[in-house]
Each structure stands twice: as structure tokens, then as C-alpha cells.
Specification:
179 residues; alpha/beta; 9 strands; globular
Length: 179
């Protein structure tokens, strides 16, 4: 544990040179199916998620955001409306999902035909076949969340996928880590 945060088990990481650093996640630059884990250490989900979804939307992609509770959904909805005065992220969680490029949901069904699924509820995505990218965000200050992320990462590996791992630095930037 470092300053109240934990990281994935070091035994899962290969020891190699200087991993890349970025102010914003780079997982959206790949064209192949990709899974990327994001460990929050200094920001809340409500602070980080709008910038990530803005990148998804700017690339012309649709996103499904899987959330753990109605209260969290309302908090994320509010964050998406208010994070930047000059921005607009078309999103919703009521009505017809297909009308919304960003769909907030308690379920993992791809009702808005999203290419990107953002997992914020700590659950494994059993079926990624309809998605190009899966982004799994978890709180690095919660021991249980870190352990669950390790389990999900290993499950994806057993499925033949090659997840990437990004850890938030104390400055709020993103550093790619070897796993």
C-alpha cells in the first residue's frame, strides 16, 4: 500500500523499463479488441469518467457505462452534465438507449450498440463479443476492489485476452504499468 492506495499484486507485473505516462488514458487508440484496467488513486470515478467518455465520443464511438447502483448512476449523470461548462456529452439512462451515444446502466446488455463498455461496478463482463473495447475502472484505495480487479484480470487472461493496466499517479496522470 502506498499513501492509502494499493496496486495490483507485483507478481503479476513484469520488470521492464520505464512505462509510458499520459494525462489521459490511451486505451482508446487501439483498433483491436482491448481490455484496459484503470486504478483510481487520486480522483473519484465522477471526476475521471467524463474526460474518458469525452474521448470516446470525440472518436465517434458509443459507450455503455455499467454502474453499481441507482444513486451512483445519478451522481455520474450529474458529473457528465457539469464537468465542463463548454462541453456537452449526450448521454442518458432513461428512454430509448439507442438514442444515446453514452448509455448509463445497471445492466451489461448493449442496448445502445456501444463499441466501448466501461465497467465501474467491479463485475466481470461474461460476453465482450459486441464490444471493441472494455475499460474496467476501480478504486485503488479499496483493498476489496483491488483484489476483485486482480481476479477479473486473471479471468480475462484465461479467456486469451491481453489486458493493459493504467495506474493513476499522485499527480493525477496515468502511467501504464506492466502486468
Amino acid at each position: 500500500m502506498t499513501n492509502g492506495t494499493q496496486t495490483l499484486d507485483p507478481s503479476l507485473r513484469a520488470k521492464r523499463g520505464n512505462p509510458g505516462m499520459s494525462a489521459t488514458p490511451r486505451c482508446l487508440s487501439m483498433t483491436n479488441k482491448e481490455i484496459a484496467f484503470y486504478q483510481l488513486n487520486t480522483s473519484t470515478l465522477e471526476k475521471m469518467l467524463p474526460a474518458l467518455l469525452e474521448k470516446v465520443y470525440q472518436k465517434g464511438l458509443r459507450a455503455l457505462v455499467v454502474i453499481d447502483s441507482p444513486q451512483r448512476m445519478e451522481a455520474i449523470d450529474y458529473a457528465l452534465w457539469t464537468y465542463s461548462p463548454g462541453s456537452f456529452l449526450p448521454h442518458g439512462y432513461k428512454g430509448n438507449a439507442e438514442d444515446h451515444p453514452i448509455w448509463l446502466s445497471l445492466e451489461s446488455s448493449n442496448r445502445n450498440q456501444a463499441q466501448v463498455v466501461v465497467i465501474t461496478n467491479g463485475k466481470i463482463m461474461e460476453d465482450l463479443s459486441g464490444f471493441e473495447r472494455c475499460v474496467d475502472i476501480f478504486d485503488g484505495s479499496q483493498e476489496t476492489a483491488v483484489e476483485q480487479a486482480q481476479s477479473r484480470l486473471e479471468t480475462y487472461r484465461r479467456q486469451g485476452l491481453s489486458p493493459k493496466f493504467w495506474e493513476q499517479t499522485h499527480e493525477g496522470r496515468w502511467q501504464e504499468k506492466s502486468i
